[in-house]
């Protein structure tokens, strides 16, 4: 469980990022935003390179904070008691809502590639769809899902909790980078 540790892409992760870059090479987009964790930044840089775009980072896209479970091997945690310092699902969903507000306010009318991490991307999709995280199909490394976000859509997903007028045409979310 890497959680909010930086990590680095291995060759498999770099290859997955190159596949996404090739898939998006013919697409027009205006910005690339990534988690501020190194493994996501590396992924975003590979995706952004063919477009000559800089990578903007934000801690809003970080993976879930696994607290005392960070660095542990998932199969070893089967019967473990969850520590109190794990980021709650509610906090994760709030951060996802905040990210949608940020992206629509910062990039109105723009197409944005957002590079996050698996559990956070799942929270983002749950907020977007107005469902629980359990209802969102797991995203695989280097998976791309395209979301259309507007003020009305964000509000209907419960993403906008302020009176801020924001709009965005499209947000593309590339799934979690691999450092396996």
Total beta strand runs: 5
SSE string, helix = H, strand = E? HEHEHEHEHE
Low-confidence stretches: 158-180
Percent of residues in helices comes to: 25-40%
Largest sheet: 5 strands, mixed
Strand order of the largest sheet: 2-1-3-5-4
Mean pLDDT: 79
C-alpha-based Rg, rounded = 16 Å
* Separation, N- and C-terminal Cα atoms: 11 Å
What is the topology?
Layout: H1 11-24, E1 31-35, H2 38-48, E2 55-58, H3 89-106, E3 111-115, H4 118-129, E4 144-147, H5 151-156, E5 170-174
Parallel strand pairs: 1-2, 1-3, 3-5
Antiparallel strand pairs: 4-5
Structure write-up:
- There is one protein chain.
- The chain has 180 residues and is an alpha/beta fold.
- The protein is built from five helices and five strands, in the order αβαβαβαβαβ.
- The chain has a five-stranded mixed β-sheet, covered by helices on one side.
Label this structure with key terms.
180 residues; alpha/beta; 5 strands; 13% strand; disordered C terminus
Summarize the structure.
With 180 residues, the protein is of the alpha/beta class. It contains five helices and five strands.
